Amino acid sequence: MKPFTRSPFAMPAMQRELRVLSALLALAVLGACAQLRPVSLPPAGVAFEPPPAWSSAKAGDASPGEGAAALASWWRRFNDALLEQLVARALQANTSIAQARGVLRQARAARDASAAGLAATVTGSGQAQRSKLDGTAPTNSYNLGFDARWEPDVFGANGHALAASAATLQASAASLAAAQVSVAAEVARSYIELRGVQLRLAIARDNLASQQSTLEITNWRVQAGMLTSLEQQQAITAAAQAAAQLPPLESAAAQLRHALAVLCGQAPAALDALLAPALAIPEAGAQLALSLPAATLRQRADVRAAEFELEAARARVGQADAARYPVFRLDGSLGLSGLGLGASGGTLLRTLLGAVTGNVLDGGAGKAQLEVQRGALAQAQAVYLATLLGALQEVEDALSALAGDRVRLDHLRLAAGAADSAALLARQRYASGLVDFQTVLETQRALYSSQDGVAATSAALGGDLVRLYKALGGGWQPDGDPAAYAGGTP
């Protein structure tokens, strides 16, 4: 075997190879350090001044000792361990949140792809071949090459694309937080409504038992000749009507249990055993919500998402503007070929090319694309303002409903107390023959209606609080990454 020898002429060639390779690596470093060209972007153009206080708030309602950070887990203010457990399950397993996490993952990858557009691209290739002809010795040949390409972001097109992708990523993170807020609110609303339906179902069963007891007394009095069949038929009608109230309530309770299970990412009947036992309707105060200024709405997850979308739209305007200018490109290549690793007859190929490309005439396509992005920016501005105004309306509507249901509940509780006393007196006097059967029916109907109204309004009051905390964007973390919401990072 021929010993490996290095030609004295190979050293300068090797040095040249290293210099060219260094130049190619320098292209990559320069690409990674490319900066966004300052471009004058249009202003956001959204003017919104939130009111200094909520119009529905009353003096003395607010609790100044608490801040916006307490909204991160507002459902805990209901002091219901099962509710907290259900919200935690839903934030981890809900399918809508899983979809939002997937969108966030896509947005992060798109941002990384845009960032890669600012760096140089270096590719390498290698080839080795061994051949032999009849009557000749075998020969080895090789080819080794590197290619680099870099487009300096002179006019900022790639930089604006990166800025748009980064803003879209932030919008996706805020949208994930908004999905978590919505899921938490839906779980709390359904849970409170379930407890309200269960209470109404218990009241309806008590009413049925009362009607059946009255029917028994009526039957005895008919047999004794003290009443006619008219009163008997009226008692039968009242008992049947009371029994008819049960199936819709039982169905509503089952549907709410199913809804809660699906919100938690489980089969509809998976939580029946857990939710079937009736518990009291959770209650909480509105002092925390009333203590927060209207400017808090800017921290709502959906408002933040709209704001980031607005920033992305502004960056795309800059990208479309920069796309109308020429593109500069530097290409470099280094190639080495020869008959063997130790041979001195290798050939070194080096190229360095600079190019400028751009549209000389495009028929106005570039300008039209710029106008398209400006139109998208105008839409994003309108969406951002509409989201802010809609958030303010949701809070004011929830406060108004809360105040109305509070007053209604006070009146219904007073009516229910009086109706209970009246029904008890009517039954006692009816059993003694002092009042007619119609009086008993009227007092029992009034009692059931008042008690049912108290239960329904109590649940509605809890739902008003849930809507209020949701309208305030409950669940966001002040001055933090929206992806780090209480439900966990994706």
- The poorly predicted ranges are 1-11, 27-39, 59-65, 478-490
- CATH topology description: Outer membrane efflux proteins (OEP)
How many angstroms separate the termini? Answer: 62 Å
Tally the structural domains.
1
How much beta, percentage-wise? 5-15%
By oligomeric state, this entry counts as: single chain
CATH 2nd-level architecture: Up-down Bundle
CATH homologous superfamily - what is it? Outer membrane efflux proteins (OEP)
Radius of gyration: 38 Å
Write down how many β-strands occur, each being a DSSP E stretch of 2 or more residues.
Answer: 4
Main structural class: alpha+beta
What is the element layout, followed by pairings?
Elements: H1 10-32, H2 81-93, H3 95-116, E1 121-131, E2 139-150, H4 157-223, H5 229-244, H6 246-263, H7 272-275, H8 287-291, H9 301-322, E3 327-338, E4 347-357, H10 365-431, H11 437-471
Antiparallel strand pairs: 1-2, 2-3, 3-4
Helix pairs in contact: 2-4, 3-4, 4-5, 4-6, 4-9, 4-11, 9-10, 10-11
Features:
single chain; 490 residues; alpha+beta; Outer membrane efflux proteins (OEP); four-stranded antiparallel sheet; 4 strands; 9% strand; elongated; disordered C terminus
Describe this structure in words.
The chain is of the alpha+beta class and 490 residues long. It has a single domain (14-129, 141-484), classed as Outer membrane efflux proteins (OEP), CATH 1.20.1600. Helices cover 60% and strands 9% of the residues. It has eleven helices and four strands, in the order H-H-H-E-E-H-H-H-H-H-H-E-E-H-H. It has helices at residues 10-32, 81-93, 95-116, 157-223, 229-244, 246-263, 272-275, 287-291, 301-322, 365-431, 437-471; strands at residues 121-131, 139-150, 327-338, 347-357. Strands 1-2-3-4 form a four-stranded antiparallel sheet, covered by helices on one side. Helix 4 runs antiparallel to helix 5, helix 4 packs antiparallel against helix 6 and helix 9 (301-322) packs antiparallel against helix 10 (365-431). Residues 1-11, 27-39, 59-65 and 478-490 have low confidence and may be disordered.
